[in-house]
Write a structure and sequence with these properties.
- By secondary structure, the protein is mostly beta strands.
- The strands form six sheets. Strands 1, 4, 15, 16, 17, 19, 24, 25, 26 and 30 form a ten-stranded antiparallel β-sheet that branches. It has a six-stranded antiparallel β-sheet with strand order 18-27-20-21-22-23, with no helix packed on it. Strands 5-8-13-10-11 form a five-stranded antiparallel β-sheet, with no helix packed on it.
- Helix content is 9%, strand content 42%.
- The chain folds into two domains: 2-37 and 209-409, Jelly Rolls (Sandwich); 57-204, Sandwich (Jelly Rolls).
């Protein structure tokens, strides 16, 4: 048992992990992707008591032209008494208490019925059962047409009603999670939401790999793939999207090869946020070789509009050790700092806005001016990155360092102690 505990303790902490990037080559559909990228997203099941653990079903559910026959073992049984007889959850009983008109929702339920006129229903749209008399997973993407829309199991027959059973009813507001126009399709939803889960959960989001290169289809400026990660040079970067809970702290770990002064600013990680238009949180190497983290404005210069306080943090060049390093930028309670985990050298503090900031675009290898102009390109290798939706502890930092050291050693990268 002690040996097992020591093994488990060497794994990276999973609490708060929302993205992990291992820069390894993979070819898929003629595109070079970031292999082993795992992106997680906080997801709220909007259906309350959809597994009927609380058998006092009336607390969250209602009937319309129907009677409940029984409830038990996570299954509700009911029979319609008129056309469109339904077992439903009113919007006021769901989370957050009302549907959002125009938002797309994914709903799923396991339903047993002897008629192909029985359906999973929301917002006036129905997904019908085959009528085969067995449990089938009914699922679909529905658009809310009114704030009082609620999910229902509905019997559209006008007569001849018999008992219907349902279990594992769940649903998610796709538009709230992914944004307008970015909602996943039904196949992607099936992969993401394949199991019933209660409340707020962290779910792995597949198929969000980003294409490398300065523009789609341009291969001449892609970072060079090596056994030790990605080698970035002028005009190289990777660009993708990531969604943070804007009310929480965060930590960004990145393992890279730190070279000496180059005479130019080099950004190795940059994140857009919307506190001000086109502002960036950027991890960089200065022209003199110092390592830092800054808040910059649209023109790429240090922003003085963030509460009128310190807006950059750096490790002086005389304290920077070259070679393979693990760096972390951390934000907690409005205060952030930048640290070389490998050596333990820490920067001064950086003060960020007290109001929540929403982080979205994540870029490695450069930063962007405005919406599309890439600049301040990185000229070295990046091997691994992990993003946490929390301020990790010193113990967490040590575990992540040891984890990355072991993993990168297998690729010939010796991460400093």
């Amino acid at each position: 048992m002690q040996r097992l505990m020591r093994l488990v303790s060497t794994l990276p902490p999973k609490r708060g992990l929302i993205a992990e990037y291992r820069f390894e080559q993979q070819i898929e559909n003629d595109q070079t992707l970031w292999n082993n990228r795992r992106v997680f997203m906080n997801a709220q099941n909007v259906v309350v008591n959809g597994n009927f653990a609380d058998e006092t079903w009336i607390n969250a559910w209602s009937t319309l032209f129907a009677v409940v026959n029984s409830i038990g073992d996570g299954i509700i049984s009911f029979t319609a008494t008129a056309a469109n007889g339904s077992f439903l959850q009113l919007a006021t009983h769901s989370v957050p208490g009302a549907a959002v008109v125009g938002h797309k929702y994914f709903f799923a339920a396991d339903v047993k019925a002897a008629s192909n006129l029985v359906a999973l229903s929301f917002g006036g749209t129905n997904v019908f059962h085959s009528g085969g008399g067995n449990f089938e997973r009914l699922r679909g993407i529905f658009t809310a047409t009114a704030t009082d829309n609620g999910v229902a199991i509905k019997d559209t027959r006008t007569s001849g009603w018999n008992m219907i059973q349902a279990k594992n009813i769940h649903g998610y507001d796709l538009t709230a999670m992914f944004g307008v126009g970015n909602e996943p399709n039904i196949a992607q939803c099936e992969e993401i939401f394949r199991e019933w889960r209660d409340g707020i959960v962290s779910l792995p989001i597949p198929n969000l790999n980003g294409q490398l290169g300065s523009s789609a289809g341009v291969d001449t400026s892609d970072p060079t793939w090596t056994g030790q990660g990605l080698q970035f040079t002028t005009d190289d970067y990777t660009k993708g999207s990531i969604i943070f809970d804007a009310t929480k702290d965060f930590s960004i770990f990145i393992a890279l090869n730190v070279l000496g002064p180059s005479g130019a600013v080099e950004n190795f990680c940059s994140i857009s946020h919307n506190y001000y238009s086109n502002q960036k949180l950027s991890m960089y190497k200065s022209a003199s070789g110092a390592l830092g983290w800054s808040v910059t404005n649209d023109a790429g210069v240090l922003d003085t509009n963030v509460n009128g306080t310190t807006n950059h943090a750096y490790i002086p060049v005389e304290q920077v050790t070259q070679g393979y390093r693990l760096l972390v930028a951390k934000f907690a309670n409005g205060i952030g700092f930048f640290k070389d985990i490998s050596s333990g050298v820490i920067s001064q503090l950086i003060i960020l806005p007290a109001a929540p900031i929403t982080l979205n675009q994540l870029t490695f290898g450069c930063r962007f001016s405005g919406a599309s102009t890439a600049q301040y390109f990185f000229n070295s290798s990046i091997h691994w990155a992990m993003v946490y939706q929390c301020a990790t502890s010193d113990a967490d930092n040590k575990r992540i360092l040891n984890y990355m050291k072991r993993q990168l050693a297998q690729r010939g990268v010796v991460l400093a102690a």
